[in-house]
């Protein structure tokens, strides 16, 4: 619901080449707020998605992702984004021979992984399946993940019971969802 009216957020038409998507066209009207639903950032006549010979996505122009490089294990090692306002941005990954992530670099920040441990900027964190232990600083903190029925993390709670960080609404794929309305209705009376 936008401005008190029901609106169609997404009415998507997909153009394929075999089983590979080439373009997505949104047939719905742009929303008043401008950021709801799928955002097409390229002309509908241009292929927004490209793939390599192994079927790996190497370009997604709708996400300003201009290049993805893969290693011999088909794991992404470098992603290059380009925004006309912000300029170029790069994400880099380093893996061990078994395909385990060893290092992540983005914008000068480097995160190193070893087993369940993560080291970033001198801060050490250990991540278990349903929790993580922050060993940085004077006070050590244990955090628990609260998940929904699909396994998505909905909240992170400290061992003391306080909600850690900002409350966000996320899609099953981890992208932040902007709330459509602050008014919620129930079938119960």
Write up this protein.
- This protein has 189 residues and is an all-beta fold.
- The chain has a domain at 39-158.
- It has no helices and 14 strands.
- A ten-stranded antiparallel β-sheet has the order 5-6-7-8-9-10-11-12-13-14, with no helix packed on it. The chain has a two-stranded antiparallel sheet with strand order 1-2. Strands 3-4 form a two-stranded antiparallel ribbon.
- Strand 13 and strand 14 (153-158) form a beta hairpin.
- The model is unreliable at 180-189 (pLDDT under 50).
Shape: globular
- Relative strand content: 35-45%
**What's the number of helices?**
0
Average pLDDT confidence is 79
Let me know the largest β-sheet. Answer: 10 strands, antiparallel
Based on DSSP secondary structure assignment, what is the total number of beta strands? 14
Q: How much helix, percentage-wise, in residues?
A: under 10%
Strand order, largest beta sheet: 5-6-7-8-9-10-11-12-13-14
Say what oligomer this is.
Answer: single chain
**Element order, helices and strands?**
EEEEEEEEEEEEEE
Rg = 21 Å
Give me the secondary-structure category: mainly beta
| Separation of the first and last Cα atoms | 22 Å
Q: Could you list the spans in which at least 5 consecutive residues all have pLDDT below 50?
A: 180-189
Record keyword descriptors for this entry.
189 residues; mainly beta; disordered C terminus
């Amino acid at each position: 619901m936008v401005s008190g009216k029901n609106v169609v957020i997404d009415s998507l038409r997909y153009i394929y080449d075999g089983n590979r998507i080439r373009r997505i066209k949104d047939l719905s009207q742009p929303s008043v707020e401008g950021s709801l639903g799928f955002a097409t950032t390229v002309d509908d006549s241009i292929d927004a998605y490209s793939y390599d010979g192994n079927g790996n996505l190497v370009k997604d122009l709708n996400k300003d992702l201009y290049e993805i490089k893969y290693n011999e294990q088909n794991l992404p090692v470098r992603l290059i984004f380009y925004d006309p306002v912000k300029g170029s941005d790069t994400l880099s990954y380093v893996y061990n021979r078994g395909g385990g992530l060893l290092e992540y670099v983005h914008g000068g920040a480097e995160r190193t992984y070893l087993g369940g441990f993560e080291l970033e900027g001198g801060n050490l964190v250990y991540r278990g399946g349903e929790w993580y232990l922050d060993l940085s600083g004077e006070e050590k903190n244990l955090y628990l993940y609260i998940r929904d029925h699909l396994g998505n993390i909905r909240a992170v709670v400290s061992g003391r019971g306080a909600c850690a960080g900002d409350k966000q609404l996320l899609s099953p794929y981890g992208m932040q969802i902007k709330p459509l309305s602050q008014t919620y209705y129930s079938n119960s009376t």
